[in-house]
Write a sequence for this structure.
């Protein structure tokens, strides 16, 4: 497992609440899973951006 890093960012409130609600509905709590799901979302985004970028 990669070493986790602590981050601090500003995001749109509505999107953040929707993301937290998604994690809460999937796992029943936010502890531990919020960071894991955020990491998955970042990896998914990067894979899609990299794929789109290389198709140009």
């Amino acid at each position: 497992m990669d070493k986790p890093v602590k981050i601090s960012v500003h995001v749109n409130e509505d999107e953040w609440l929707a993301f937290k609600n998604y994690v809460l509905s999937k796992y029943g709590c936010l502890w531990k899973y919020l960071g894991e799901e955020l990491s998955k979302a970042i990896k998914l985004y990067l894979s899609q951006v990299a794929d789109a970028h290389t198709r140009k």
About this structure: The chain has one domain: 13-54. The helical segments are 13-27, 33-54. The first helix runs from residue 13 to 27.
